[in-house]
Amino acid sequence: MAPNDAHTALWPAPHASGAVDATVHVPGSKSVTNRALVLAALASEPGWLRRPLRSRDTLLMAGALRAMGVGIEEGVGPEGTGEAWRVLPAGLRGPATVDVGNAGTVMRFLPPVAALSDGPVRFDGDPRSYERPLNGVIDALRVLGARIDDDGRGALPLTVHGSGALEGGPVEIDASSSSQFVSALLLSGPRFNQGVEVRHIGSALPSMPHIRMTVDMLRSVGAQVDTPESGGEPNVWRVTPGALLGRDLTIEPDLSNAQPFLAAALVTGGKVLVPDWPSRTTQPGDRLREIFTEMGGSCELTEYGLVFTGSGAVHGIDVDLSEVGELTPGIAAVAALADSPSTLRGVAHLRLHETDRLAALTKEINELGGDVTETADGLHIRPRRLHGGVFHTYEDHRMATAGAIIGLAVEGVRIENVATTAKTLPDFPELWTGMLGA
Ligand SMILES: O=C(O)C1=C[C@@H](OP(=O)(O)O)[C@@H](O)[C@H](O)C1
Ligand SMILES: C=C(OP(=O)(O)O)C(=O)O
């Protein structure tokens, strides 16, 4: 297939002939891998990442850090060569060029790192990356002492003129459009001369578990972080300046990418085991245990991992997803197959994700015969009998996996550009057909 054909190619989503019964080894977490790479690059000694996710977003992160002078070498992990990265921090260098693709983590976490480099770092990416909000990071970095050239829209493309150090200190931001603004400033904060104090002053802040993930991972490499939860002021996070340790970290499976496989058990009345499901985690995907149980399944966390079992019935749900927005496409797909209506709330910011996810889900489910309406901050989904057709994906990995869930229950669904799942889960089609025993 010629490279461009992948964008228009149609993948016949497998229809499930019966209940699935499978063990699915889900690759590492995108959010943990990309935080671990940044923290290891900023450390004062080498570190290891074991079982890192290797996907478009994480390879872009690794490539960008390498471009700024960081060593990231293939190492030997628990499963042999190629299963680990050894990260060798070095003085951060410019000039460099960073391709962010359409990775929120890369476009938001790296400009603060670039501000610590000793020269200009140019950031560019996919057309969609120009539309995703970055103003919180750009404005904050300027307040903290960085020089940035952009076109004034608060978005990519831009150049950060690193001068080898950043003063840091207190800064106010409105992170209501992305929690990643807060995470970005905290991750590099220990390396700023004064550390950083981030005060969120906007309306509701989405994706709080991802901010907790940032704080937890910072603390695990020796950073001192004060948070609202540790007795600080509401909406204020403070990072003390200091050296970061090089750690040996094994990356957890990506629980948000486990979603389509758990959904398969739910919609087919089957059973799926996801090995290595962590007993304690900050990943938002852990909320699936509760959400998919309410939608009709049951789960058990055993020494082998998470066993999720469908009952044969799928129920609608009324749920606020503001903390776990990235789960919305998969929940919407299950809701379209349920026996009662659903209301998904608290996710207006999804309009600025990989695509406008609220518009895309509404259009694509309705074109298969569904009845979805957009609300100010989410979706109303009234299940209808669906029919086959093309499910467009808008270069959004989670649209592709959402379409695959529907395809299990509805014959003749064809997914456009299933290869877009490579953003976070390059093996998705193989894992999916493997789960179905094909
Ligand atoms: O920090 C992270 O790793 C992420 C935070 C969330 O971003 P938003 O707060 O922009 O939704 C989430 O949706 C994204 O998939 C990953
Ligand atoms: C919103 C997402 O990604 P990003 O990290 O690009 O924001 C996502 O993975 O659902």
Main features:
binds phosphoenolpyruvate, 4-stranded mixed beta sheet, binds shikimate-3-phosphate, UDP-n-acetylglucosamine1-carboxyvinyl-transferase, Chain, 438 residues, alpha/beta, 2 domains, 13 helices, cytoplasm
Q: So, CATH architecture of the largest domain?
A: Alpha-beta prism
The CATH topology of the largest domain: UDP-n-acetylglucosamine1-carboxyvinyl-transferase, Chain
What is the CA-CA span between the terminal residues?
23 Å
CATH level 4 superfamily of the largest domain: Enolpyruvate transferase domain
3D shape? globular
Binding site for phosphoenolpyruvate: 30, 104, 132, 180, 357, 398, 423
Subunit structure: Monomer.
Function: Catalyzes the transfer of the enolpyruvyl moiety of phosphoenolpyruvate (PEP) to the 5-hydroxyl of shikimate-3-phosphate (S3P) to produce enolpyruvyl shikimate-3-phosphate and inorganic phosphate.
EC number: 2.5.1.19
Short characterization:
With about 450 residues, this protein is an alpha/beta fold. It has 13 helices and 23 strands.
